[in-house]
Amino acid sequence: MPPEVAGFHRGATTNLTQGDDGRETGYRTMGRTAAGASVELYRLPGTSLAEGAEGTAVEAAFAALVQDATRPLPQRRLQEDDRFTLDAGLRCAATQGVYGRERVQGLLCAGGIGGGILRLRVTMPERDPAPADARAFASGILAALRAP
Predict the structure, then answer these.
(1) 81-98: per-residue pLDDT in tens?
(2) Residue ranges of domains in the chain, CATH in brackets
(3) Is the overall model pTM greater than 0.85, yes or no?
């Protein structure tokens, strides 16, 4: 994973229990009003997926990501705003809602990459201008993973 993408700086990487050889890497912006992101990469056992935003495995990964993010919790309420395909490789949904009393906006994306699944989540306070460009981050991660 790249050390910096669109103003987001890489943090810790942990292993995932989901899939084969899965890992999650955290990213955040610097400054008083920070944005945070997590990037998950994993392989489904015995399967090599095609690259891009299409396919049943990508749809299932995306649906699970959206469902998890929009499931109401006592301190979190998020809703999906808009669905779109980013850079012909990621199926994405813009989100908005609240964490505690803080209004937030975000981005959820999933796609096939390198035979496995890429899922990413970006969350930031709702400000004008926004503290970071979530779409630029997602595009940058995708480009870095596609690079030879």
Answers:
(1) 999 999 889 999 999 999
(2) 37-131 (3.40.1000.10)
(3) yes
